[in-house]
Each structure stands twice: as C-alpha cells, then as structure tokens.
Amino acid sequence: MNRMKKIFAGTVAFMMLLGSMTTTVLADDTNYWGESIEEVEATFAQASAVAEELETATPAEAAALSEELNTVAPVQYVPLWGQLRYDTAARIAMKAFPAGESVDTVVIACGNDFPDALSANGLAGSLDCPLLLSDRGELTAATKELLIDHWGDGVSTNIDKAYLIGLGFSDAMKAGLAEIGLTEDKVVVLGGMDRYETAEEVFDQIIDLNVASGKLDRPVFVASGKRSPDALSVSPISYYFGAPILLTDGATLTEKTQECLQMASAVYILGGTATVQPAAENIVVNIVGAKNFERLAGDDRYLTAAKINHEFAGDVKTTTRLIVAYNAEDKDFPDALSSGMLSRIGKAEGEYTVTMLVKPDCTNALNYITNHFFNGFAKEVFLTGGQTNRSPMIDQIKAAVDAEHNGACH
Fold it and tell me: Mapping DSSP to helix (H, G, I), strand (E, B) and coil, where does residue 163 land?
C-alpha cells in the first residue's frame, strides 16, 4: 500500500471512529483514563475540523494532516466489562448492536462452562445477530434486561427467535424466556449428547442458512473440544465469516464431523499437535486435500492467537480494532467468546477485528502489539474482562498501543 493509500485508509478508519468516540464515556462522566465528557467532546470537535480539511487537501497537506489526526485523536479504549460475565456480554452486545438497530434474532450460549458455547459465534455471525450468555439454571438478569429494555418495551422483548446452544438449559431458564415473549415456538435448541454433537448441530444449521448447493463458501475451523483458547481466539473471525467451528477430542473426529467436513472448501486446524494430534490432522487432509488445509499453531495459546490474527488480517493494514480478552485458564472463556460479535463493526468497509488473549503479566500482548500489530492504523481497542483483571495489565497494553500508534516502536 503506497503512502496515499495509507493516508486514505487511516482517514476512512478515523471518520468511522468519529461516530463512536463519545461512547467511550462511562456512567460516572469519565472514561477509564479520567477524561471527562467535556474533554472527549473537545477532542471530537478538534478532530472533526482536521478531518474536514483532509477532504480538500493536497497530497502534501494530507500527509501533515494525517499526522495531526494521530495526535488529536489517539487510539480510543472502549471498556466493555461488568461485574459478571453476563453483564460483560450484555455491554458487548450493546456496542455491537447499538440502540435503534433492528434485531429480531439472538443466539444464547451457556455462561457456566465452555464446551457447547465454542461453536456459537459462527451461527451468530451467519445470522448477523447478538451472541448472549445465560446461566443454565435460569435466565440471567443482565440478559433478560437486555432483551426487554434494549430490544423490547421494558416488559417483553421484540425478538422473534432465539437459538439456544446446547441441551443443558433448564426448564426454568426456558420459562424465563417464555415470560418475556420468547415462547417455545420461538426457541430453537441446537444440542447433542456432548460438545462434539452440539458443534455438529450448529454446523448443520449454518449449512441450512447459507448453502443452497455445493460447498460452504467460508472457512471451517477444527479445534480442541477439551481446551477453550484456540477456538476462542478465532471468535471474531468465525463471527465475521459466519464460519463453523467443529471440535475434536484431539485424537480423532466423529463420523458426523467427518461428514460435515465434506462440505468444506477450506479447513483450518487451530492449535499444535499436543491439542490436535497428527492422526486427527490426517483425517482432515484425507477429506479436504492438502491444498485446502492449514494448521494455525503457536507455542502456547497466546502465540496461536497471534498466528490466527496474522492469517486472516495479514499485515493488519485493514484491521482497525483489537479485542483484549483476559484468558489465563479455560474458565476465563466467556469474555473472549462474547467479543466475537464486535467484528461486525466495520465489516461493511472490509475492516477486521482480531482478538488478543492476555495473561496476568501481559508480556505476550505487549510483544505482539509491538511486533505485529497496528502500524498506526488501529483506532479502537476493546477491553473486556472483569475489573479485577484490568489493572495494571490494561495500563501496560495502553502504553504499548499508544507507543506503536505514534511510531515509537517502528
């Protein structure tokens, strides 16, 4: 991409940012780094003026104005966290589907544990709808409030259809849905006797939605059903393409999963041979052929996430958004799972959103940001996870992102 194309790409990304800058302000009239509403609005006004000048600027003027934009409007940090995973998922959904945007369908996954939920993003992306979380025993309060307040009249919801991922949801949870208008005839349950069958059920639903005949025109991912990180890393890509995620026990694939793969035109195994063994890889290659297969793997979950990002975002010149999701253990799955739907932001403009899984010392994220990401183009960083995980880890990430954005790390 030449210099003018870079300036244009940065300007387009920035103009998209203008509409969302004030959304980073929290209820206490400050954002996480202490900027008041007045300060954010002043930045917005100043940046808008610079952007107007860019419309009629000469190439030489545009280069200088582009640098000014980087100073006036640095990367925006959007905190999307709540006290519980269900609150965080609700905040993410409201960011991805702002007030006034029509929503008639939702996908609801179990927030208690990860196996059934891993395949949910591909379906939600195929439907271009929110992915919500609920406790299996009852309709979680945050999810209920979102359904009736954000997409309803305060008493009942305007949603016409809900897909429940997995068979584990109780009658009480389903009764909670019925009370707000999602009666049994409006609820589709996709689940099998185990996580592998559930992923297959979701795959079949994606096929029904997207394939009239022939092959599936999007990637298919195969990940471990015993560990969550690799499937979580691909969440925004899975949502973006409406791409299915199938699961393996590591050693083999079920007969049904093998049948599903016959519909695939391109298959990616996620993770190293410790999680998806060569025997399972051989089964995949025998079905789709070596030229239609690739393994995306790093030395750990964090480097695997980096590999996935690089595969689908390349040099990341079209990537303007990064999701930072805390993931030190499998139990930390919910925030990364819910964040997948953020990839719909900017999709119409061909922009990508990628996930960076982070651990408490944050070293992996800092290295990745410095060596692989941004190149001055990223405009939004979505910060997910509970408040106990956010500092000082998030402050370290902010410093690294700002340094990269301003050219200090080149």
Answer: strand
269-303 per-position pLDDT tens digit: 999 999 999 999 999 999 999 999 999 998 888 78
- Residue 149 tokens, joined: 């307040």
Global pTM reads 0.77
Cα(150)–Cα(94) distance, integer angstroms:
8
Number of H helices, E strands in the chain: 16, 12
CA pair distance 73, 47, nearest whole angstrom: 6
Phi, psi of 270 (to 5 degrees): -105, 125
d(CA 47, CA 31): 18
| Strand order through the sheet with 76-80 | 76-80, 380-384, 319-326, 352-358
- Sequence-distant (6+) residues with CB within 8 A of 115 are 166, 194, 195, 198, 225, 247
Which residues 6+ apart lie within 8 Å of 306 measured at CB?
A: 298, 356, 364, 368, 372
Q: In one letter, which amino acid is 289?
A: G
> pLDDT tens, 181-227?
999 999 999 999 999 999 999 999 999 988 765 678 899 999 999 88
By C-alpha distance, which of 330, 130, 133, 351 is closest to 237?
351
DSSP track, 132-174:
EEE-SSS--HHHHHIIIIISBSSSSB---EEEEESS---HHHH
Q: Which two tokens stand for residue 147?
A: 């359904």
**Alpha-carbon gap, residue 186 to 188, rounded angstroms:** 7
Q: Which two tokens stand for residue 229?
A: 């990180």
